[in-house]
Amino acid sequence: MGALQSSKTPWGAISSWEVESTCGRPFRIEAFAFGLGLQPILARRRPDVVYLSEWDTARVLAATRSMLRQRFKLVLSNGTLAAEGFDHLDRVQDLTPAANEYVLARGADPRRHVMLPLGFDIPPQLVWPSDEQRRALRARLGLPPDATIVVSVAALNRYHKRLDYLIEEIASLPEPRPFLLLVGQQEEETPGLRTLARERLGGDGHSIRTVAPPEVADHVRAADMFVLASTFEGLPRALVEASALGLPCLVHDYAVTEFALGPLRHAADLRQPGALAGLLAGVSPSDRERDRAAERHRYAYENFSWDRLRPRYVELLLDVAGKLPSA
Q1: Burial class of residue 8, CB neighbours in 10 A (0-12, 13-18, 19+)
Q2: Which homologous superfamily does the CATH classification assign to the domain defined by 131-304?
Q3: Which end of the chain is less congested by CB atoms within 10 angstroms, N or C?
Q4: pTM for this predicted structure
């Protein structure tokens, strides 16, 4: 079986509305162009399945598939809670039970949808730095050697990732406050966040950084706690990765974080002022020790590692391609 995997996605006949909409939004233009740019590869490789994660690119491929009489199947990894618009797809991968229940409750075809989490490269054993190694790591990264460090890995914005809430909650804690480390891609809202952090935490109480992907794990390992302040996610990659590295994870209390972290999460209603501050104050020294870290890693490994999920992905792709061996 041939399978072509893409980080972009979708089309079934393209309407004039969709073309006009595409022309008005840069990400739609990118998805449109990417779908067209895939055509020589599809013609040459003749895949059985194209697996992708962008709805707009999938619309392109669905339309060209019909026009060019190609037979590949389309599988969309759906990181949203969209409840409709799947008719051009052969299978939709919902990343959490909550997402799957949401779309089915709104009339989605259960034969088209499957619940299958994202897969992660998680080693079988926890890599946990010693105190000496963590101090050396902090020195290399320019982080305070003795402070309690709270890290968040997220796009540097207010609206979705709610980093303004995180800054205010840290600022509300008595001295000595934790040091706040924000790691993520800069956006239009980032300058305002920098100003807020300087005013509320001081120049020596925080750091806001954009780093290369290979450096993210070291920034997480150097910290004591991980916070995701958003109140809605598909399946947050950074959260699963932080848990796999052993950190206590403080999150909003809803079904997605319960699925992502299991019984060891620290959760509260983060829509409420003071809720996160209470979680931060409640993390005990034992929560940050190796034994508890190993439990968090084990949950992440058993539920999200490629070691555990690979057979289910193979089964999904074979089933979509019509090549699943009969029992």
Answers
A1: buried
A2: Glycogen Phosphorylase B; (3.40.50.2000)
A3: C
A4: 0.87
